[in-house]
Task: inverse folding
């Protein structure tokens, strides 16, 4: 059975398959290409324009001034590096949490429990994004938050609102995106390979390093695409649990009304970083795992 | 691989802690909605259902709920039509650029929300003369298409073309085949796609803030605007708790209609 077959017989469409195809494609393509891609293209074009300081009008002349400003102004530069470090840290922590958890789900837990465990990971993904960030506002609240209540008796302080708060919240938000591909990768791992490794004398740790890791690597990369790119573009988390700490998205959000070209230039940065990352990992086969 | 007993115990304990990390914040939201305290305080000094009653009576919450449902229904209808058309085109025809189309569909949820948000905001304010509730619906429908499309195309691929060919061999026209054969076989996948699209739209905040007209307040926007007002905290807690319950229930319903294996175990 093939996925592509001739259109059903009879009627106009049988004689004019290309017209049928045009009928199917016109409306959705008009929407996605004209409305969506058109808007994106307009935005990126705007990034090379400027705003007249006096009149506030757009000056439609090509210039790299906006990008120059982002890369030379210390405040913007540090926000960019901070955003990058947050995204990397979130990806790393998600990986450290997701590996053992997915290993437990795929290899230790009773196979009968697997669908339930997957559902448990998947469910929070559909709870409102804003509500989850809000939940961490009450978790992280200095002195009266849940973490403060839990950590005080241990002699520790709640991290409160700030850099660490952002990292924890973003990790919480995007962790399922890391768990699910790794879990899927681990369930596909053939038992025979693990047995062979053990037969050849490898202990658990060696088997993990030399057999499991190379095989689930594409899944890890697939998960990291989500955790990394979703963190890069975030601004609401920083607003709610970030205290005074700002990310690239906050700069976009505060400047787009008065200086759209500059905001567009700032917004281009995470997109370019994500595209570079996708380009770099393209060969690992990770993109087929999305 | 034979794991030692110790390793298994450690992994099991780790999994318990990880699941606690995933579920404690959601539990805190539910518990806080019954707290007597007027600010975010843990542990709550007492429990009451007073705030749930106040939230139900709140005109702002009611209006926001009606707006949210209306926008989500409209966006879902648009996404259903466009996503289904697209899934037919991609599963039944070969054409130039077919691979790019499947990438294009995912783009609105793959790119950071703020990029989609200001891109649409720019075009709507420059060419459509400003933001309204309709620009919000257009924004939401754009990123909802993908969930309908993914569910529909997975079903169409599994179904193959043989049933449609059989129908045609028996003399049915293309339209008749669609009504009597294809649509009934696709129905559950479309329902699952529609529920997920509704949930996606109902919860969305980033694209919403950039595409909603003045005075158009969805539930997430209402929360966002009242989040930093200290005297509103108890009502915000209730709305947040209600959103957790409301957004999780549809997933169970959607799961019943769609088969995760059918979608290749994909996230959406």
Result:
């Amino acid at each position: 059975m093939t996925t592509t077959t001739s259109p059903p017989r009879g009627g106009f469409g049988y004689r004019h398959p290309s017209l049928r195809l045009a009928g199917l494609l016109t409306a959705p393509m008009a929407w996605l290409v004209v409305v969506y891609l058109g808007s994106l293209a307009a935005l990126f074009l705007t990034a090379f324009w400027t705003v007249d300081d006096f009149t506030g009008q757009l000056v439609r002349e090509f210039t790299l001034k906006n990008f120059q400003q982002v890369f030379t102004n210390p405040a913007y530069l540090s926000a960019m590096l901070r955003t990058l470090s947050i995204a990397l840290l979130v990806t790393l922590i998600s990986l450290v949490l997701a590996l053992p958890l997915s290993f437990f789900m795929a290899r230790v837990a009773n196979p009968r429990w697997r669908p339930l465990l997957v559902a448990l990971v998947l469910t929070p993904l559909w709870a409102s994004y804003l509500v989850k960030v809000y939940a961490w506002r009450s978790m992280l609240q200095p002195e009266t938050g849940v973490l403060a209540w839990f950590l005080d008796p241990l002699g520790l302080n709640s991290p409160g609102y700030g850099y660490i708060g952002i990292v924890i919240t973003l990790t919480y938000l995007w962790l399922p995106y890391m768990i699910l591909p790794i879990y899927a990768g681990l369930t596909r791992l053939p038992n025979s390979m693990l047995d062979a490794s053990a037969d050849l004398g490898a202990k658990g740790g060696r088997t993990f390093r030399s057999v499991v890791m190379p095989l689930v690597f594409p899944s890890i990369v697939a998960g990291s695409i989500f955790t990394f790119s979703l963190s890069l573009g975030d601004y609401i988390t920083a607003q709610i649990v970030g205290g005074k700490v700002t990310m690239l998205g906050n700069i976009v959000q505060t400047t787009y009304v008065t200086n759209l070209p500059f905001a567009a230039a700032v917004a281009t940065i995470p997109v370019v970083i994500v595209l570079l990352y996708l380009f770099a990992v393209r060969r690992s086969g990770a993109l087929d795992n999305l | 691989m034979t794991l030692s007993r110790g390793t298994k115990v450690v992994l099991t304990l780790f999994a318990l802690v990880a699941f606690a990390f995933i579920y404690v914040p959601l539990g805190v939201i539910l518990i806080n909605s019954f707290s007597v305290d007027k600010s975010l305080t843990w542990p709550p000094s007492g429990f009451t259902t007073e705030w749930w009653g106040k939230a139900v009576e709140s005109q702002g919450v009611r209006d926001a709920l009606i707006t949210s449902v209306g926008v989500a229904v409209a966006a879902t209808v648009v996404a259903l039509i466009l996503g289904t058309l697209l899934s037919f085109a991609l599963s039944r025809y070969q054409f130039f650029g077919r691979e790019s189309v499947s990438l294009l569909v995912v783009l609105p949820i793959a790119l950071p929300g703020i990029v989609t948000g200001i891109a649409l905001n720019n075009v709507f304010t420059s060419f459509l003369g400003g933001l309204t509730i309709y620009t919000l619906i257009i924004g939401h429908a754009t990123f909802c298409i993908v969930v309908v499309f993914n569910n529909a195309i997975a079903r169409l691929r599994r179904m193959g073309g043989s049933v449609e060919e059989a129908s045609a061999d028996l003399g049915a026209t293309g339209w008749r085949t669609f009504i009597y054969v294809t649509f009934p076989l696709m129905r559950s996948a479309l329902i699952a796609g529609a529920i997920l699209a509704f949930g996606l739209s109902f919860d969305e905040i980033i694209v919403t803030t950039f595409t909603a007209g003045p005075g158009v307040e969805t539930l997430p926007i209402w929360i966002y605007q009242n989040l930093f007002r200290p005297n509103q905290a108890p009502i915000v807690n209730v709305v947040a708790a209600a959103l957790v319950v409301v957004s999780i229930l549809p997933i169970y319903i959607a799961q019943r209609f769609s088969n995760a294996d059918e979608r290749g175990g994909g996230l959406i």
